[in-house]
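Methods: holo model generation. Sequences were used as deposited, without trimming of termini or removal of tags, and paired with ligand SMILES retrieved from the corresponding compound records. Each pair was processed once, and we did not select among multiple samples. The sequence and copper (II) ion SMILES for this entry were:
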Amino acid sequence: MQRKLKIRGPALALAALSALVVSSAAPAGGTGTIAIRHQMRGCHSWSFNSGPFKATQSVTVKAGIVLRFTNNDVMPHKLIQTAGPKVRLAHPSMIKMASSATVKLTQKGVYRFTTKAGEDYAWAGTMKTVGEDNVLHLTVRVK
Ligand SMILES: [Cu+2]
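and the model returned the structure below.
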């Protein structure tokens, strides 16, 4: 019992320390998170930094930001850049639940992104939606 307690103390301190190191190593522009979800009307929408879910989003961020897209919809989404300084998309094909794509925006300017949605996953075959499927649009102003 006592030996267990001795081990736990330093282990906790170490965990706290490594958490501190990770947060201080974050990029200057920070991180933005975009979540894609399934919904009955329009099939899908997305949200920026836990804000409201809408098909069309417009945000302003600082240069150096890393955007992380996570696809929680019941179908694949491929992230596509349609305007702005050319950027490299990491893992743009989000082809399963919770898969994510990232992109770093280092240059100032106006970037636009959309997604190309695929077919419902087999396990989601009975999902009912109302209306036309939304096309997702995201405008990012980098200052
Ligand atoms: Cu959808």
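Confidence is low (pLDDT under 50) at residues 19-27.
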